[in-house]
Write the structure tokens for this entry.
Amino acid sequence: MPDDDGDCAFAATLSLDNYDLPVGAPVFIEAYRQTTWRRFGIGYVGELQTPEDRSLAEFGSAEGIRFRVRVVDRATEGRNRLPARILAHADGIRPQLHETKHEQAESLLAVDWGEDDEFRHQPWRLEFSEDSEPLLRISRFLVPNRDSFVRSREFVSLVAPELLRSILNRALLVAQVEVRDGDCGWQSLWVRFAQQLPGIQLPPRADEPGSSEEWIDSAVTAFARRIDVRSRFAQWWSEDEAP
Amino acid sequence: MSEFLDALGEETASLYPHGLLTDPVCTQPTPLPVTVEDRPFAQAMDLARYAFEVVANSGVAEPDRDKGLWAWLALFWFRRLCPRSTHGQYLPGERARWIPALDEAFRYYRHLVLGRYLVYATNRDKPARALAFLCQPPQIVGHVYYQLAARQSLITCRAVVEAATLLYYDTAKRRLRRNAQTYGRAGSVFRFANILMQLDRTIDLHSATGPELLALLPAEFGEFLSGNPSNRGE
């Protein structure tokens, strides 16, 4: 992303061959962060072009930038005062940084640590909405130190596996997303995360009944092994202390 | 600053930490010298415009990523921005209003100075476009702001900002129209935000104008569409 001069710029490789889209439909790449937004025209479905100006100078650094790809229907633009119709889009695309001075993994799970009045009686909650990725909300009223809380052995052993289960359930059972190569939505990111776990292959197709649940069970078990839930749990739970 | 904010909720509230503003341990000068006035702001628009001028003259390279800059400005104008109870007690609210949560997509816009600055900066070619977001006193953050600024795909779209102002800003009275922020009310900003999120899946909002978006709204928005002469093409 940062080019040789240190200015922020992007490069993208896009393949729309497997999508049934009109060859004359305009394609745009949008970069955004907070309220900063910039759109780049990259030609048409049948003739993608690399824009000369791919600068993201107004963003300053590449930190936190996300991308969106949109294919619009030029045919409806301006007709009867209707804006262009979206034919296809991909959102929340995280860039791969060209070079980073300090390798720092970005959390896959968005976390909100706030003082909303309605969040005084639960230490945490996992939320889903149609228009955004899963969000882990942590109550600042009850949790004074967010990092200590999520790294604690209690949280890791009791909560972390079930967070993964809830997210995969949402992606595969509720949304019934079929993950394909190149997909960049949050569902695909989480499924690919699970696939990296030992012994976890591609998820089954949506039309294979029961197998998605089994795949999710296997992924959660593999994750629990990876983060050593068993040992962490034993560190703080003792039958002698049980009520 | 956190200790000061925490103490405001207690009876033995700390004195205003004036020293923090100049303490070399917790502040650093801007690249260029700039004067910041402790002036009153009638509207959030005035605050946003002045903050934009200050930041533009300060030489700060990436102001939207500079946490210290915005925490400093919020503390400097604290007595202008912080609501008070009827007994005069400061009611600072959540921390993100004073110390920007830059890396939290769901909170960064809540900062009382940074949030307004960002809306103004995005619409600086025509600030009046954003009046629905910035017409209230700076101590008050209304639902027009919260509902739309919380959705990144909406707040970055000029057509959405323009449409919100056409719907909800009363140009004659220079304030938000009645019922615009009433939860559960047909045509309110809560409904507007939900419908826009649905439209955003199928319509390229960024290629539209404000009036074109208004033309897509259902009949429930009639109260607000008909009440503004601009929406009737007058």
User: Anything to note?
Assistant: The radius of gyration of chain A is 22 Å. Strands of chain A lie at 26-33, 36-44, 47-48, 66-73, 85-93, 110-114, 124-129, 132-139.
